[in-house]
């Protein structure tokens, strides 16, 4: 018997027999393409001091360049969720990678601040399309482990976060030219496009039937306008300022305030990447524990880490250790579960849109995170900037998370069966 699916079956999202292993393999291909994004995200802050030296940009300007891509993500995130109702997920992924890669290569040819700002923002539009789609694919197919699937996406970011700074520092040392690493990572994106077109099949990428089946009978909202989604949107706005305040300007803080060399800075940022490897475990925790408990505790830990990173620690070992824990808690737990809880707060047919809302809200605030912490550092010093933008906002996030209603979020299928009432046969 022929195991292949007909075109109508593929479009309906039906799964072929024995498809789980193949689905995991295709998901790995998509995750690998997202790792390339992470490489660029980590490499530009590493190169920011060199860019600033060549162009004469101010600290706040470099901070804006480091995080402006998030404005593109904010603009494109929610529209991508709605666009997916008319465009295949695989096509949207390929288009997003192409936009991202072209913007990355063009950054190396920018003649001034405005031009570079536009190219960096364009990369965010491409990444928003790619990230929104990958989250939607993972949570639609692996419905029993939605937060874990998001954790796998962030895990792939961790891979790129480790490779990016080390490879970028090596490429910079080879050519002594900051443009060279940008061009190399941009070209890698086109290789990823070819691999996706060859390896990712529609029966996996376009799966939709499971979205409805596993949510049946659960108390999830039928609209995006509900208490949990509103609270999670505010928490995502706070999360964007915290996460990208760190990612956008922390390398500059290490190099200009603590006097770290590019190689030392690369090692510290790689330690952060190793912490992000906990993302799958962080998603697994989010699939099994109360959203309120997970987010309250993790936001409070983030507040303590902000104090340590920008105020208390000054040695390479201390900064590397704190960055590792930051990656573990903030990226591995807060980021992952904000995305997962957005999707679990609504009925399955809203997966695409919920993913888009998460991307737009978190990256909307992230778009100004580098600028604000750079401005605060210029006005009040780095220590005060870290306490204000990281620690204080994290405490506010913990308080808001107390108002979440975990009972209104979908459970993984296994737990839904365990909690269902027993009926007589």
From TrEMBL:
<keyword id="KW-1133">Transmembrane helix</keyword>
<feature type="transmembrane region" description="Helical">
    <location>
        <begin position="382"/>
        <end position="404"/>
    </location>
</feature>
<dbReference type="InterPro" id="IPR036259">
    <property type="entry name" value="MFS_trans_sf"/>
</dbReference>
<dbReference type="InterPro" id="IPR011701">
    <property type="entry name" value="MFS"/>
</dbReference>
<feature type="transmembrane region" description="Helical">
    <location>
        <begin position="117"/>
        <end position="137"/>
    </location>
</feature>
<feature type="transmembrane region" description="Helical">
    <location>
        <begin position="180"/>
        <end position="204"/>
    </location>
</feature>
<dbReference type="Pfam" id="PF07690">
    <property type="entry name" value="MFS_1"/>
</dbReference>
<feature type="transmembrane region" description="Helical">
    <location>
        <begin position="59"/>
        <end position="85"/>
    </location>
</feature>
<feature type="transmembrane region" description="Helical">
    <location>
        <begin position="92"/>
        <end position="111"/>
    </location>
</feature>
<feature type="transmembrane region" description="Helical">
    <location>
        <begin position="149"/>
        <end position="174"/>
    </location>
</feature>
<keyword id="KW-1003">Cell membrane</keyword>
<feature type="transmembrane region" description="Helical">
    <location>
        <begin position="269"/>
        <end position="287"/>
    </location>
</feature>
<dbReference type="InterPro" id="IPR020846">
    <property type="entry name" value="MFS_dom"/>
</dbReference>
<keyword id="KW-0812">Transmembrane</keyword>
<dbReference type="GO" id="GO:0005886">
    <property type="term" value="C:plasma membrane"/>
</dbReference>
<feature type="domain" description="Major facilitator superfamily (MFS) profile">
    <location>
        <begin position="26"/>
        <end position="409"/>
    </location>
</feature>
<feature type="transmembrane region" description="Helical">
    <location>
        <begin position="21"/>
        <end position="39"/>
    </location>
</feature>
<feature type="transmembrane region" description="Helical">
    <location>
        <begin position="230"/>
        <end position="249"/>
    </location>
</feature>
<protein>
    <submittedName>
        <fullName>Sialic acid transporter NanT</fullName>
    </submittedName>
</protein>
<feature type="transmembrane region" description="Helical">
    <location>
        <begin position="320"/>
        <end position="343"/>
    </location>
</feature>
<feature type="transmembrane region" description="Helical">
    <location>
        <begin position="294"/>
        <end position="314"/>
    </location>
</feature>
<dbReference type="GO" id="GO:0022857">
    <property type="term" value="F:transmembrane transporter activity"/>
</dbReference>
<keyword id="KW-0472">Membrane</keyword>
<dbReference type="InterPro" id="IPR050189">
    <property type="entry name" value="MFS_Efflux_Transporters"/>
</dbReference>
<feature type="transmembrane region" description="Helical">
    <location>
        <begin position="355"/>
        <end position="376"/>
    </location>
</feature>
